Recover the amino acids of this structure.
């Protein structure tokens, strides 16, 4: 059975302070994580230009940049804590910068569609045991249901069947169109959900769906997931 790996997503929450970054690494180790992952970019302006995000985000990117001379210390402290060190790069020139320090590479969901950027990692993966993890985005139907709102014809807040055109709805809560988490919570988790996150079970499953009656169907591969879609959704 494939073991679930826990990656502590530290991102850029260090607030520009290496002491804070190291403390978060220690907290991740204490919490039982397998890896920590931070973010690295060498140029706030280049990143803002690449993402077409403007001067406002350029200032934010500048504030949360990791200085390159942090990387050796962060790798050393991470490995000393028994964790693997991962880093997301956003610019092609930065892949070579982080390569000497990372155990594995990561591509964010924003860059997931940029094949040239993804392929730029491969010269560091050839004849290597390192991985390249590509985020596909959240694409959660629950956030889409929240965006769609009340269905007057069904008299329900939960649409029985979602279609591809539903994924085009213009809403910040539509995680099929927008990268990252929604701007605010869409519900409050119950105790069972909190316990499930706190005590995850080992599983080979990567996909799931709910059928119109509320049943849950899991799948190990995308092919199995598509079979479940055909069986439980498209034939209803």
């Amino acid at each position: 059975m494939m073991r679930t790996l826990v990656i502590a997503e530290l991102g850029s929450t260090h607030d520009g302070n290496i002491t804070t970054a190291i403390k978060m690494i220690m907290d991740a180790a204490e919490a039982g994580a397998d890896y920590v992952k931070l973010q690295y970019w060498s140029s706030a302006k280049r990143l803002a230009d690449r993402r077409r995000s403007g001067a406002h985000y350029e200032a934010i990117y500048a504030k949360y940049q990791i200085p390159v001379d942090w990387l050796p210390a962060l790798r050393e402290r991470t490995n000393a804590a028994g964790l693997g060190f991962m880093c997301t790069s956003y610019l092609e020139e930065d892949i070579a910068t982080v390569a000497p320090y990372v155990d594995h590479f990561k591509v964010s969901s924003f860059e997931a569609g940029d094949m040239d950027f993804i392929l730029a990692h491969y010269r560091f993966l050839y004849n290597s045991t390192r991985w390249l993890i590509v985020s596909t985005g959240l694409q959660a139907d629950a956030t889409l249901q929240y965006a769609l709102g009340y269905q007057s014809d069904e008299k329900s807040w939960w649409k029985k069947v979602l279609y591809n055109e539903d994924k085009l709805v213009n809403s910040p809560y539509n995680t099929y169109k927008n990268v990252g988490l929604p701007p605010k919570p869409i519900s409050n988790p119950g105790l069972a959900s909190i316990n499930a996150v706190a005590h995850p079970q080992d599983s080979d499953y990567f996909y799931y769906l709910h059928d119109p009656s509320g049943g849950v169907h899991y799948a190990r591969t995308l092919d199995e997931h598509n079979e479940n879609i055909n069986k439980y959704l498209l034939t209803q």
About this structure: The chain has a mean pLDDT of 88.
